[in-house]
Write a structure and sequence with these properties.
The chain is an alpha/beta fold. 43% of the residues lie in helices and 17% in strands. The protein is built from eight helices and seven strands. Strand 4, helix 4 and strand 5 form a beta-alpha-beta unit. Helix 1 packs across helix 8 and helix 6 crosses helix 7. It is globular, with a radius of gyration of 18 Å.
C-alpha cells in the first residue's frame, strides 16, 4: 500500500506569493492542485525534480461556482485513504481600480468581489462538503490582508472583500468546531509583500489614491517582504500546532 500523501489545494499560484508557495509546497509526499488563471511550466519542472505530484487547472475564479463544482467533484471521486491531510489555501485576489467608490465601475467591483470573496466562500464550501467524512486532518487557510481590518480611501472593493473573508472565516470556525473532526481554519494577513499588487498601488494617481505615498515609502525604505520570504512565513504559520486557534490572525504576530 502506498504512503498517504498530504494534499494541498492552492488558488492564485501563477505569480507573486502564490507562485512562491506552490514552489515551496512541491516536496516529496505532497500532492498539489493549483487553481490559477494560467498554468506555470516552472512548477511542473519543480515537481519532476522533487517527486511531488502536481496538477494545474487553468480556471477563472470570477466564476467561483464552476470552480467549486469542479473541485467538489474531484474530491468526492478521490479515495480518502490516499491522503494523510488535506489543506485548502485561498490566496487569489485582485484590486479594483484605485478610485473613490463613486467613480468605480460596477463590473470592476463585481469582479474583485467575486475573486476575492465569493470564490473563497464557494471553494471552502466545496472542500469541506466533499471531505466531511475524511478522517485525515483538514485545514483552510484564507490569505487576508491588513486592509481587511483597516479602512483606506479608494480601496473600498478590496477592503470589503478582505473584511468579508475575515468574518466568514470566523463563522466557518464556529461551524467546524461543532463538527466531529472539523477543519481548522484561519484568515491570515501575510504582511506587506513586494508583488505586482504593490506596483499597482505605487503607480496609482495620487489625486485619486491619497495613500500612494505610504506605499512608495515602504518600497523606498526596504520594508517590503519578498514573495519567497512571505510564502515561508505563511506556510510556517500553517504548520504551527496552534493553527486555527485564532480564526483571524496576522503572520507578524
Amino acid at each position: 500500500m502506498s504512503t498517504p500523501l498530504h494534499l494541498f489545494i492552492l488558488t492564485g499560484a501563477s505569480r507573486g506569493m502564490g507562485l512562491a508557495m506552490a514552489q515551496q509546497l512541491l516536496q516529496p509526499g505532497h500532492q498539489l492542485l493549483c487553481l490559477s488563471r494560467n498554468t506555470q511550466p516552472a512548477l511542473q519542472s519543480t515537481a519532476q525534480t522533487s517527486g511531488a505530484l502536481l496538477e494545474q487547472w487553468s480556471i477563472d475564479l470570477a466564476d467561483g461556482a464552476a470552480a467549486a463544482a469542479r473541485l467538489h467533484a474531484c474530491l468526492q471521486a478521490a479515495p480518502a485513504s490516499r491522503f494523510a491531510s488535506a489543506t485548502l489555501i485561498n490566496n487569489a485576489s485582485v484590486i479594483p481600480a484605485l478610485v473613490p467608490l463613486r467613480e468605480s465601475e460596477p463590473a470592476d467591483l463585481a469582479h474583485a468581489l467575486r475573486v476575492g470573496l465569493e470564490a473563497p466562500m464557494q471553494l471552502c464550501a466545496a472542500f469541506l462538503g466533499a471531505t466531511r467524512d475524511w478522517q485525515a486532518p483538514r485545514k483552510v487557510l484564507n490569505v487576508s490582508s491588513g486592509l481587511g481590518r483597516r479602512a483606506m480611501a479608494s480601496q473600498a472593493g478590496y477592503c470589503a472583500a478582505k473584511a468579508g473573508m475575515d468574518h466568514f472565516t470566523r463563522c466557518l470556525a464556529m461551524d467546524e468546531a461543532l463538527t466531529p473532526n472539523g477543519a481548522k481554519v484561519c484568515s491570515l494577513a501575510p504582511g506587506v509583500i513586494d508583488t505586482d499588487m504593490q506596483v499597482q498601488l505605487r503607480s496609482a494617481d495620487a489625486a485619486q489614491f491619497p495613500d500612494r505615498g505610504s506605499f512608495e515609502g515602504l518600497k523606498n525604505q526596504g520594508q517590503l517582504t519578498t514573495p519567497d520570504e512571505a510564502a515561508r512565513r505563511v506556510l510556517a504559520y500553517l504548520a504551527r500546532p496552534d493553527f486555527g486557534e485564532q480564526p483571524v490572525a496576522d503572520v507578524r504576530g
